[in-house]
Amino acid sequence: xxxxxxxxxxxxxxxxxxxxxxxxxxxxxxxxxxxxxxxxxxxxxxxxxxxxxxxxxxxxxxxxxxxxxxxxxxxxxxxxxxxxxxxxxxxxxxxxxxxxxxxxxxxxxxxxxxxxxxxxxxxxxxxxxxxxxxxxxxxxxxxxxxxxxxxxxxxxxxxxxxxxxxxxxxxxxxxxxxxxxxx
Length: 183
Ligand SMILES: [Ca+2]
Ligand SMILES: [Ca+2]
Ligand SMILES: [Ca+2]
Ligand SMILES: [Ca+2]
Known about the structure:
- This protein has 183 residues and is mostly helical.
- Among the domains are: 1-60, no CATH class; 146-182, no CATH class.
- It is 20% helix and 5% strand.
- The chain contains 3 helices and 4 strands, in the order ααββββα.
- A hairpin with a 2-residue loop joins β1 (97-99) and β2 (102-104).
- The longest helix is centred in the first third of the chain and has 22 residues, at 2-23.
- One calcium ion binds next to loops.
């Protein structure tokens, strides 16, 4: 009989806590119950969306820990964003991914404008190494005659590839250009 009474009291207490959580009210005679932690998961009853289940601690999952914290059947389907290690160039703002319960660096190939090796003349640091438009292989300039043979275009950042300053080519003269264009 005594066991039955204790069991009944516990059931009442649990039910009361459940009601307290739903109603978000704090009745004086339930304060002790609200601050208890029946399932021992470290979250007090009043803050625990599942006060009787120690693996369900969140109303909406935020932890990347391999556990279905909100008991909706999906593990780590949402989690708190953590910045990825490389925050340079087009990688600025990229975040880590959650893989098997642990944060991991993202696959950078999915980042807009990312290049494993910088290839684009676009004013962007595409390979996220801290340098913009470095070590590019420029295409040939439009004029490939006379002393201008072999000249290459110049990277002008966001403007892209532009013609070189032909006047800076050794031996260049306006007459030479006119002559070459007439040939
Ligand atoms: Ca979940
Ligand atoms: Ca989780
Ligand atoms: Ca770069
Ligand atoms: Ca670039």
